[in-house]
Amino acid sequence: MRQVFAALAAAIAIALAGCQTVATRPAPVVDIPRAEAAQQVRAAALGLADGDCATPGWAMTGRVALSNGKDGGSGQLEWTQGAGRTHLLLSAPITRQTWILDVDAGGATLQGVPNGPLHGADAAQLLRQATGWDIPVAALGCWVRAVVANPAEFAEARIDYSADLLPLRIEQDGWVVDYTGWKPDPFSRQPMPSRINAQRGENRVRLVVDRWGLE
User: CA nearest 137: which of 69, 210, 207, 189?
Assistant: First the structure.
């Protein structure tokens, strides 16, 4: 019996040693200067060198899931913008509800809500009041393309990079945005995020991009 316990103890020790080896595996070394230089090239190619998220023209379709810790929802998302105008269409196939958000220099308009359409100066505040969801629309136009929004407007940011020199995480304005997938964009010829998770507190926005395009 002692031999059995001894063998079992040895097996457990070996297993734990193996687990410790995996847990302490060093993170891949990232060439930060090269990553930062590559990021500057990406931002310039996307028209985001100055962090102005609203100006460049682009389009995206995908699937989005939203949560505020109490309520949540999911659906298909179409995002189109250019020349300072942003158009978001969110449709929930199960409930057959559709919300449309239009933003320009004059403010934001939200359609598809009771007693709508609603108007407001700030798109994020309008959405928060009407739906309870905290969606950082102004900065999200940069973050979904893995670029920092204007620090003068959204505070300083931090970018963590992966070994392939692409952004792994952006932290800005209290939000943490993680990038877990990438795909080539035939229009900008730049790698673009395909899976994006943004979180601040209990507020979460998860996005799976099906297609990138031009406005």
Answer: 207
Q: How far apart are the first and last CA of the chain?
A: 74
Give yes or no for a contact between 88 and 78, defined as CB atoms under 8 angstroms apart: yes
Tens digit of each residue's pLDDT (9 = 90 or more) over 115-129: 879 999 999 999 888
How far is it, in rounded angstroms, from Cα 181 to Cα 189? 16
As given in the structure block, the two tokens for residue 16 are 């734990």
CA-to-CA distance for 50 and 52, rounded, in angstroms? 6
Give just the sign of the alpha carbon dihedral 148, 154, 158, 162: negative
> Cβ-count burial of 138 within 10 angstroms (0-12 exposed, 13-18 middle, 19+ buried)?
buried
Tokens of 99: 């919300």
Q: Which of 63, 71, 73, 64 is nearest to 202 (CA)?
A: 71
**pLDDT in the model for residue 108:** 96
CB neighbour list of residue 23: distance below 8 Å, 6 or more residues apart: none
pLDDT of residue 10: 47
> Which residue segments constitute the domains of the chain, with CATH numbers given?
32-213 (2.50.20.10)
